[in-house]
Design a protein that fits this description.
2 copies of one chain form a homodimer.
Chain A: H1 13-27, H2 33-49, H3 55-70, E1 74-78, H4 80-97, E2 100-103, H5 110-122, E3 137-138, E4 148-149, E5 159-163, H6 167-175, E6 179-183, H7 190-194, E7 197-199, H8 203-218, H9 225-231, H10 234-255
Parallel strand pairs in A: 1-2, 1-5, 5-6, 6-7
Antiparallel strand pairs in A: 3-4
Helix pairs in contact in A: 1-2, 1-4, 3-8, 3-9, 3-10, 4-5, 4-8
Chain lengths: 268, 268
């Protein structure tokens, strides 16, 4: 059932390598089965976005960087897909910004929590919150195990970065008064609309850019983080991403270009 | 790692049930891990299509039904995702049209072939081609195990229904002079463009409609299958599906309606 290695000249080599990594992490118990399906949805929207960081995404990344570096207690919430796709990048972001890392899963199991923690530690994390008994606090308005958070992490955070999150949790965190930064390739999703700042981009591309931008803003360059945040309008930014998809569809239709989404060697 | 049962009042209950079925079949060794990711891509496009059988899809279904009932040797090619999503429907289509069923996998393994055959037999199939040594023939222009087909099935078929197929194989079959019918939710995909007739619809909705339409056409109603086929233009039909996605995006943007793609309880 394992995939053969990807031929380097394959037109979708990068996308296939990412997919193989995700499947590998699935077999290690890090990624959940529904996480594989969610990745496929992301792939489709990424293709429609042109598989690159767009102008609106760069502006959202700048706002997110401003929010994180001016936060008192920023936290990066990670799940199986996040560590499978961007463990090293998340650790670097944490190191540059001082944001703490917390494991936060939809379906919690101690095995998965520990497997995710291990990957983060291997990637250089010196601290991982939210594992096992550490997730002893509860956030309101969410059912069962999803409510569990770390009393030293998400519970008391003022800014939470929730890449690849679900709409309910995003909304619950916003209602708690937190500034929530989402990374979501679907600009129409409820997560995208409920978040304070939505980065419509692939987490693999967005996270290193976020780290770099945070570093630049920290050095107090020309731009003031407070100004950036004041001038950022998430609804407007989402509408711009949406307009880009729309224009890209028109362009694809004109070119009669084939989507290469189905070119990949699908294991069907 | 198994998903909890879906609450019946969940706004995405149907989509979640389908997903759970797919994951169940994955754990049985029927669906491949890359098949889960492929399903996610399909979900995204299905959402963009409005999750219903569109006018263009109905016309493609009619053309497909005409092609199958006038074929000398029609074959339905099935893989893990197809049996997970529509085993009973595929068997009914086979029974109504006389099309033979052949297992055809990207990554062949005898275990998967047998697991798929078993599900088809449980769904009422009296014959399943292409399992084990039966897949002794080769089709040109494809690498390795993907080339293997049944000499009594796809090799000699004049019409092949290939739901959820990859672009390479679709193209190879077309080059062999076969009329290829694809079911693909992405109207821009290479599969969609290479096939003779492309049904841009969810296999779950399309297959029973295809069976029903084949039954009606067989009874020699008002419409002549040859006329239907002559009047069907796949490129034009794909362009119509594409235009529908485009209009739906505009409508969603106007309504500022949230995509519910991310509303599902994602196991991340």
């Amino acid at each position: 059932m394992t995939s053969p290695s990807v031929p380097p000249d394959h037109p979708r080599a990068e996308s296939l390598r990412v997919r193989e990594k995700l499947i590998e992490r699935y077999h290690e118990g890090v990624v959940a089965s529904a996480g594989l399906i969610a990745h496929g949805r992301g792939e489709a929207f990424d293709y429609l976005m042109g598989e690159k960081t767009t102008g609106p995404a760069l502006r959202a990344i700048e706002a997110a960087a401003a929010a994180i570096i001016t936060a008192k207690k920023p936290v990066i919430s990670v799940n199986g897909n996040v560590v499978a796709l961007a463990a090293e990048d998340v650790v670097k972001l944490s190191q540059v910004t001082g944001a703490r890392i917390e494991v936060n899963l939809y379906y919690r199991s101690l095995e998965r929590e520990r497997a995710i923690k291990k990957i983060l530690e291997r990637a250089g994390a010196s601290e991982v919150l939210g594992v096992g008994k550490d997730a002893s606090a509860r956030i309101p308005e969410l059912g069962s195990e999803r409510r569990r958070v770390d009393p030293h992490g998400i519970l008391v955070a003022d800014v939470v970065l929730v890449p690849l999150e679900d709409g309910d949790r995003t909304e619950a965190l916003v209602k708690m008064g937190k500034r929530v930064i989402a990374v979501d390739l679907n600009p129409l999703s409820r997560t995208a609309r409920k978040a304070s700042i939505t980065i419509v981009d692939n987490i693999i591309r967005a996270t290193p850019k976020l780290t770099k931008t945070a570093g630049i803003l920290r050095k107090q360059g020309r731009k003031n983080p407070a100004d950036i945040l004041r001038n950022f309008d998430n609804k407007k930014n989402l509408a711009e991403s949406f307009a880009l998809i729309h224009r890209r569809l028109l362009k694809l239709a004109k070119e009669k270009k084939h989507s290469t989404l189905e070119d990949e060697k699908l294991d069907l």
